[in-house]
């Protein structure tokens, strides 16, 4: 009798859970998915905190200093800069409050209901980047993986396939797999940990591209290379030797070459963006002996140095993420790469526009 009661309770709990998963709202506004198709190219983002919008008031509630610091209301991610400067030409979707808890999304995926975006955040519809993401979150193929960016983005793309005939998916992932290995890179750039990280990220990105192109063959994909963690101001007191510098550079080249090789196999549909080379061209690098030797970048009268802090004169925020100045310059560069890979007639972002955006009054505080 007791066994039957326990079975009944278990079934009741299971049914209640199932009904709860079916009914769990995701707050996606009506019409958001099927918003009008315009001449703008649709752009989606797979990534980590380097691509999640700063103006997200769910992940980063008002008063939080986790992202943006004291100037948060005027601190923008590169996606936010693109929309503000080229919102009529680049469509990342409407700004929405959307998503579910990771566990709920995973359980819904498990029973075939579709997880939607996870975790919940305020961001552009097609931006699936979330803070803390790593290469295992690109496809989320491991059992129990709550954050599966590409499969869930693909489900959204399938709702409105026409706009993705000339769309672009930007994949900017690997920082969280890579930066924690800086000590290993400095000692031995061919260490098993390095090889494992390179191989795994390459495999996941390759699988993501294959999965996207199986359903949307004309969609372009832009893969963003990793940066050099030794360029971060927090590391400046270390790695000051010829050997450490050479080893780190070698390891970074291995990572970027692996991603570059993905684009080389399908150059008409897949492109590679070398963030590290762009950063070096702008701010410079350490000397061969590892001593920091960075220069300032001029944005009008503003001199932006490779330092960290909440002021606009710093390339990085106090929390280590890119500041408004760096993101504006990166968006300026990226619009050119989007133009090349998509063939769309995107208007270049001029130096004058960057100056007005960063040090002027043109950037609004809300999306």
TrEMBL record:
Key word Hydrolase present in the record? yes
GO MF annotations for this entry? hydrolase activity
Source organism per entry reads Variovorax humicola
Q: Give the Enzyme Commission number.
A: 3.1.-.-
The protein's name is: SGNH/GDSL hydrolase family protein
Q: Which residues form the SGNH hydrolase-type esterase domain?
A: 102-284
Q: Extract the SUPFAM superfamilies matched here.
A: SGNH hydrolase (SSF52266)
Q: Which UniProt keywords apply?
A: Hydrolase
Q: Which InterPro entries match?
A: SGNH_hydro (IPR013830), SGNH_hydro_sf (IPR036514)
Q: Kindly report, in one word, the top-level EC class recorded for this enzyme.
A: hydrolase
């Amino acid at each position: 009798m007791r066994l039957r009661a326990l079975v009944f309770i278990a079934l009741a709990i299971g049914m209640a859970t199932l009904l709860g998963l079916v009914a769990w709202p995701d707050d996606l506004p009506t019409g958001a998915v099927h918003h009008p198709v315009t001449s703008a190219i649709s752009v989606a983002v797979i990534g980590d905190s380097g691509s999640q919008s700063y103006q997200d008031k769910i992940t980063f509630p008002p008063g939080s200093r986790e992202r943006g610091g004291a100037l948060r209301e005027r601190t923008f991610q590169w996606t936010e800069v693109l929309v503000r400067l080229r919102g009529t030409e680049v469509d990342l979707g409407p700004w929405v409050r959307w998503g579910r808890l990771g566990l709920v999304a995973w359980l819904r995926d498990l029973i075939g209901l579709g997880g939607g975006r996870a975790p919940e955040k305020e961001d552009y519809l097609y931006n699936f980047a979330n803070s803390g993401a790593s290469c295992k979150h690109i496809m989320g193929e491991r059992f129990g993986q709550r954050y599966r960016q590409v499969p869930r983005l693909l489900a959204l793309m399938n709702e409105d396939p026409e706009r993705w005939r000339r769309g672009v998916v930007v994949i900017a992932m690997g920082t969280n797999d890579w930066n924690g290995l800086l000590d290993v890179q400095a000692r031995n750039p061919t260490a098993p940990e390095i090889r494992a990280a390179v191989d795994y990220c390459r495999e996941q990105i390759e699988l993501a591209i294959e999965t996207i192109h199986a359903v949307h063959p004309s969609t372009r994909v832009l893969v963003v290379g990793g940066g050099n963690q030794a360029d971060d101001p927090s590391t400046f007191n270390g790695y000051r030797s010829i050997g450490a510098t050479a080893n780190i550079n070698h390891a970074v080249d291995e990572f970027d070459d692996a991603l570059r090789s993905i684009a080389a196999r399908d150059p008409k549909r897949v492109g590679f963006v070398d963030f590290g080379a762009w950063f070096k061209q702008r701010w410079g690098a350490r000397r061969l002996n590892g001593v920091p030797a960075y220069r300032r970048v001029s944005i009008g009268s503003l001199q932006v140095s490779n330092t960290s802090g909440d002021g606009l004169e710093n390339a990085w925020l106090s929390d280590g993420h890119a500041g408004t100045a760096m993101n504006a310059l990166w968006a300026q560069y990226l619009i050119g790469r989007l133009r090349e890979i998509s063939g769309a007639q995107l208007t270049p972002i001029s130096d004058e526009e960057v100056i007005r955006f960063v040090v002027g009054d043109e950037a609004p505080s809300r999306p």
